[in-house]
Amino acid sequence: MREISDKIFLKSFCEKFCKIVEQHCKYIIVSGYLVIALGRSRGTQDIDMIIEKLDLKKFKNLHKDLVKNGFHCVQDEDSEEIYTSYLKENTSVRYIYEKELLPEMEIKFAKDILDHIQIESRIKIPLTGVDVWFGSIEANIAFKEDYLKSEKDLEDAKHLRLMFQNEINQKEINRWKTLIKKVKMK
After folding, report:
1. How far, in Å, CA of 173 to CA of 137, rounded?
2. Whole-angstrom Cα distance, residue 32 to residue 155?
3. How far apart are CA 84 and CA 110, in angstroms?
4. What average pLDDT does range 112-140 have in this prediction?
5. What is the DSSP string of the chain?
6. Are 44 and 64 members of one domain?
């Protein structure tokens, strides 16, 4: 029962956070949360988000809305410091509910062409039951199989292949793998 209540809480946290972010910029949820939303048990309570790059003024407005809605940045309270010392330096920051250690939303700016392509081709995946934007299934599989490659990521990729076996496009996965090699593995 605890796992079910944790997933419901994580879903609520994710949707609330994303709804606020969407008012300010485009984003995608990446990494492990997609497979959690698709039913895979995974011992994590953090969600990874990539947002398009914002200028300081736009980020300050986003941060202000997050704080107004009960979120707190773990690294710092000052939006200018968060922006200049972390996000602008390609370091992620974590937001939590005020006075709660978990779950966490880890956000970072899009930093390369791969991030930008994923944001521009983002999709909602009704099967997850979560109303947020994700990178494509094919991009997720390619990153997990060819870039991240941990045991957990390879199991995630297997889960995605199983869940979407009749829908995934292997040519698109291969295209993503080629792009990843060109950009990440220089």
Report:
1. 9
2. 10
3. 15
4. 96
5. -HHHHHHHHHHHHHHHHHHHHHTT--EEEETTHHHHHTT---S--EEEEEE----HHHHHHHHHHHHHTTEEESS-S-HHHHHHHTGGGT--EEEEETT----EEEEEE--SHHHHHHHHT-B--GGGT--S-B--HHHHHHIIIIII--HHHHHHHHHHHHHTTTT--HHHHHHHHHHHHHHH--
6. yes
Both structure tokens of 66: 């997050």
Instruction: Tokens 């250690």: give the residue.
Output: 101
Residues 83, 81: Cα–Cα separation, whole Å: 5
Domain range for 37 = 2-112+127-135
Q: Are 138 and 172 in contact (CB under 8 A)?
A: yes
Q: What is the pLDDT of residue 67?
A: 97
Structure confidence by residue, pLDDT tens digits, 146-181: 999 999 999 999 999 999 999 999 999 999 999 999
Q: Quick one: which of 45, 22, 46 has its CA closest to 133?
A: 22
Same domain, 46 and 99: yes
